[in-house]
Design a protein that fits this description.
The chain is mainly alpha-helical. It contains 25 helices and five strands. Strand 3 and strand 4 form a beta hairpin.
Length: about 600
């Protein structure tokens, strides 16, 4: 890291002095260094950087060799379309810790071909390639996924070579990791489809709530994406706690993909996505892959922007919501620490030092007195409660005890209200189902009606009538649908509007214009019983068999498995022991003292 810092500083000086090391007199015709001129340059820059001339000379030569190689790579790419990629290899796989690892390849070849070459050249098996935080698909070509000449590609090893020596064991690890991704996805997908129409004690389901525990009204598609995103995030965090950073990063990047499917308004109003960005960059740090500067920097900027939107410029929104800001300070500590680390790697020592000072100041405020933690444990509180309580109260022992007791009472009251709300909901769903509607349709109608039973009943009746009318009027005319599509409306909205208006194009057009191009949910209602029973799949009309029972058992096992990764405490992401942070602070302070 020190060498990288020195090289970046030298590049800045070279750019200021308009010196091109790849040209004479610094590089001779045979690509060898112009020793005398390189020596003079090293002595001049050594005085400016207050570093030993041999150290600066070595760094200058490294910069020169890289520049010559880059220029040669550019010429090769222009002449032959063969690109040069820089590889960020796993620890222990680098042949020379100081030399850059590169590979030449065409970009119009399948990614699998590059994976095979890297595996053969560096004796690696079961690897994934990461570009700017995204996993490259082995089935697609490199250029289709944004790989360019001189791209930096991170190589992740999916199995621990020291732990599993044999090929069959490594293959098992790879399969297990892929299976973990699939099982996590399927488990949370099952939960995202549940609507709470069954007993939550026997059929768990998830709801998205605000910081006070109140359920949020979110469109079904966004809710599904958000549950999947949060599920993969929690799985990744669980792996981070076990120091399994390779596996954690893969799950966190999957979470990021699902978060990107949510609306920007939703993401900017909650801090989940910001915490995810921090966790991804923290994994980069643990894997010594902070050379992915552009991606890491953009993620930290995104995290900071979301924190400011959610919490306020001076944490005023956070204070209004929670009454204190102490617990969230650990997130800013990690944010500023990572920003300081990146600044150092970029050669900006002054900014790194400024940020590190902010980090150390924050650390002194959130680092806890072990004696106070012990006293709270004696009072019957947990370690997590003690840490969060002391940070919320700026280390005040009495205040922390009162704060924890109050939080326990609030949580108990919230659980009681939630249990009562679910009992009431189940009672209404049962009443509606007794009238001939399915429990799923009744639950969805009740959700649309904001819990009002009479409105839910009206929605169900209108939906049933609409379904009958649709059945009577027959299929929609493709010509009429095309007319609405030509006017710029979406196909689903066009078909729904024509169904509601009995196929009248003019009325359907006016309906869509009056409602911003969509059909209001209250007109559509929920899926009617007749719709749900007319599936083309033969199995939907057959009685339950042993195979369906086994499927239910499998789903229950999947749900149980993924729920184990969800922490029981809603502020688990704030409960940092700061042990890793302390190590990084000490290392960074040591690096900066050497400059």
């Amino acid at each position: 890291m020190v060498e990288q810092n020195t090289e970046v500083k030298l590049k800045i000086l070279l750019k200021q002095d308009k010196i091109q090391l790849w040209n004479p007199p610094y590089t001779e015709d045979n690509n060898q260094p112009g020793c005398q001129h390189m020596q003079e340059l090293a002595e001049r820059y050594a005085a400016l950087l207050a570093l030993p001339p041999p150290e600066v000379g070595g760094a200058l030569e490294s910069v020169r060799v890289h520049a010559v190689r880059r220029g040669k790579g550019n010429q090769t790419f222009r002449d032959t379309s063969v690109a040069t990629l820089e590889l960020l290899l796993p620890r222990g796989s680098r042949k020379d810790s100081k030399a850059k690892s590169e590979v030449e390849t065409r970009l119009d070849v399948p990614t699998q071909q590059l994976v095979d070459r890297i595996g053969e050249d560096y004796k690696l098996q079961n690897i994934k390639l990461i570009l700017n935080g995204k996993t490259l698909s082995v089935g697609q070509c490199l250029d289709e996924q944004g790989v360019k000449n001189h791209s930096k590609v991170m190589v992740l090893k999916l199995s621990d070579a020291e732990w599993k020596q044999q090929l069959n064991e490594e293959e098992e690890k790879r399969r297990n990791q892929e299976e973990s991704l699939q099982r996590t996805h399927k488990g949370f997908q099952i939960l995202s489809e549940r609507d709470g129409s069954e007993d939550p004690h026997t059929t768990p389901f998830l709801e998205i709530a605000d910081q006070k525990g109140n359920p949020l009204k979110i469109p079904h598609k966004e809710k599904k994406a958000l549950i999947l995103a949060m599920g993969f995030h929690e799985k990744g965090r669980s792996l981070m706690k076990k120091k399994q950073y390779d596996d954690a990063l893969i799950h966190l990047l999957q979470a990021d993909q699902h978060f990107n499917q949510c609306g920007s308004a939703l993401l900017s109003s909650v801090d989940n996505s910001a915490v995810l960005q921090l966790d991804i960059v923290w994994c980069y740090r643990a894997l010594e892959a902070l050379s992915c500067l552009q991606d890491a920097s953009s993620r930290l900027n995104r995290a900071e922007s979301i924190f400011l939107q959610c919490y306020g410029e001076k944490r005023e929104r956070l204070m209004m919501l929670k009454g204190n800001t102490g617990r969230e300070e650990v997130l800013f500590l990690r944010l500023y620490l990572l920003q300081s680390l990146l600044s150092y790697i970029e050669g900006n020592d002054s900014k790194a030092l400024q940020l590190l000072s902010s980090v150390e100041s924050l650390y002194s405020r959130v680092c806890l007195d072990p004696d106070k933690v012990s006293q709270l444990l004696v009072l019957g509180f947990t370690e997590r409660e003690a840490r969060l309580g002391l940070r919320a109260c700026q280390g005040d022992l009495q205040g922390a005890a009162e704060h924890i007791s109050t939080r326990r009472q609030e949580q108990q009251e919230l659980q009681q209200r939630e249990a009562q709300r679910r009992r009431s909901r189940m009672a209404v769903v049962s009443s509606l189902s007794e009238l001939g509607f399915s429990r799923r349709d009744a639950a969805r109608a009740l959700q649309q009606a904001d819990g009002d039973a009479d409105t839910a009943y009206t929605i169900l009746v209108e939906s049933s009538q609409l379904s009958n009318n649709n059945t009577q009027q027959g299929p929609l005319s493709p010509d009429k649908v095309d007319q609405l599509l030509y006017l710029g409306f979406q196909r689903s909205s066009s078909e729904a509007a024509l169904s509601l208006t009995g196929g009248d194009v003019q009325e359907a057009t006016q309906l869509l214009l009056d409602n911003n191009g969509v059909v209001p949910p209250q007109l559509l209602g929920a899926s009617s019983p007749s719709t749900s029973s007319t599936s083309s799949s033969p199995s939907s009309e057959e009685p339950a068999t042993s195979s369906t029972s086994s499927t239910s058992a499998e789903e229950a096992e999947l749900v149980k498995e993924v729920l184990e990764d969800i922490p029981h405490h809603e502020e688990d992401h704030l409960d940092l022991t700061l042990e890793e942070e302390a190590e990084v602070i000490a290392s960074l302070r040591s690096f900066l003292r050497q400059t």
